[in-house]
Specification:
409 residues, two-stranded antiparallel sheet, mainly alpha
């Protein structure tokens, strides 16, 4: 099974790096798939003292091989569609600059409300658990990503700089996922021409440097918060390479799927209960508190491990809907990438939902379904709120401005 997985992965990789094509969501999705399944290339999962030489079950390989084959088929079909000139010529209209300003204004507003609620000093806490990740903080991050992407797309430098400050603040707090999403989106939006990745050493270098920085940042972010050079020096000296995210994260995530499939572990919720809990704002009418899958994994799959093991969307879906549901979810994920790729050329508004798309495409292997739904929910809420603000206030301003100009003229 290992040899077969190697073969299909190498074929996929060769197509992506040697074929002259756009850097797109499939590129991001494949990089994510490779990174989060690194142990599958060696057949074992190792987490130092905690899990040693766990063999990867054939059920996991069947699923990963299915994912790789599905990727290859849909990527080839996608590239043929993107080659269509009529498709390329669509979607040239811009999103209104005033609407972009509304999103950026809301981002500032969300952060201000969060600082008033939690207090600015809270974000300097060395313990991330003490930071109150309220609704406003989450909305502020997604608003910053949306305005950042729109600024890049339409070359509004002040929007780019302002949004980047908020995104970097989330990194300072200790969240790496959002700066990673910003970097991937930046590369995606700036790569307008077809290239061969094997010849694009600049893009590869940016990805490698960014990846290594984010990997090591987790070990030193407390020193960054305190601006203490002694803590920084000790953090670097005491790095345990076996526990760095580069080595441990992919092992932890794949171990979740491996154990779930090996022991056929089922979620504590029925299909109906689980489905109801995924509905936005369901907590308002459901009496029982929802336990996320990552917490379920920590309590039931790895009870002896005292650090976060993340989740695994595929294992979560299997624990509720079985193998059929897991494979259908994989198909839907690849279709999401394909539909978004096409939509980016056809519909100007697709860029508004791009932050959630990139986040889900890259982090799908390690997050819960509640995070998938939550990211889209936040993006859509900001789109709707910005539209209301634009319709009620900004349109009136534009109308009066045009009338004044007409009268003067």
């Amino acid at each position: 099974m290992i040899l077969l997985y190697w073969t299909i992965s190498v074929i996929n990789l060769a197509y992506l790096i040697f074929k002259k094509r756009n850097i797109d969501l499939f590129t991001i999705g494949f990089l994510s798939l490779i990174y989060y399944t690194l142990p599958a290339f060696f057949g074992t999962i190792s987490l130092g003292k905690h899990i040693v030489n766990m063999q990867i079950h054939n059920k996991v390989y069947y699923f990963l091989i299915f994912l790789q084959l599905l990727f290859l088929i849909v990527i080839v079909f996608n590239d043929k569609r993107i080659n269509n000139k009529e498709l390329k010529e669509k979607g040239n209209k811009q999103v209104s600059k005033y609407y972009i300003f509304c999103i950026f204004f809301l981002t500032i507003l969300f952060y201000c409300i969060e600082f008033l609620i939690s207090g600015f000093d809270t974000f300097f806490s060395l313990d991330k658990a003490e930071i109150r990740m309220t609704t406003f903080y989450g909305l502020g991050i997604w608003g910053a990503l949306m305005s950042f992407f729109l600024g890049i797309k339409y070359k509004y430098n002040y929007i780019i700089i302002g949004s980047l400050i908020f995104i970097l603040f989330s990194l300072f707090v200790g969240s790496r996922a959002y700066i990673a999403t910003a970097i991937l989106g930046c590369i995606l939006l700036l790569s307008k021409n077809k290239i061969r990745l094997v010849n694009s050493w600049r893009n590869i270098l940016v990805l490698i440097i960014s990846f290594l920085f984010l990997v090591f940042y987790k070990t030193i972010y407390t020193a960054v918060k305190t601006l203490d050079s002694d803590i920084l020096t000790n953090s670097i000296k005491n790095i345990n390479f076996s526990e760095l995210p580069f080595f441990s994260e992919s092992n932890a995530i794949l171990s979740n799927l491996n154990v779930i499939l090996l022991y056929e572990i089922k979620n504590e919720y029925s299909v109906l209960e689980y489905s109801l809990h995924q509905i936005p704002f369901s907590s308002l009418f459901l009496t029982d508190k929802y336990v996320t899958f990552s917490r379920f994994v920590s309590a039931n799959v790895h009870p002896d491990i005292h650090f976060g093991m993340g989740g695994n969307l595929w294992g979560e879906i299997y624990s509720v809907f079985g193998f059929v549901g897991m494979y259908i979810a994989a198909i839907l994920w690849v279709l999401l990438i394909y539909i978004t790729n096409i939509s980016l050329y056809k519909f100007r508004g697709t860029i508004l939902i791009l932050p959630a798309i990139i986040y889900v495409v890259f982090y799908v292997h390690r997050i819960d379904l509640s995070f998938v739904i939550g990211s889209f929910q936040s993006n859509i809420f900001i789109i709707f709120l910005a539209f209301l603000f634009y319709s009620i206030y900004i349109k009136q301003f534009i109308r009066y401005k045009v009338m004044d100009y007409t009268l003067v003229k």
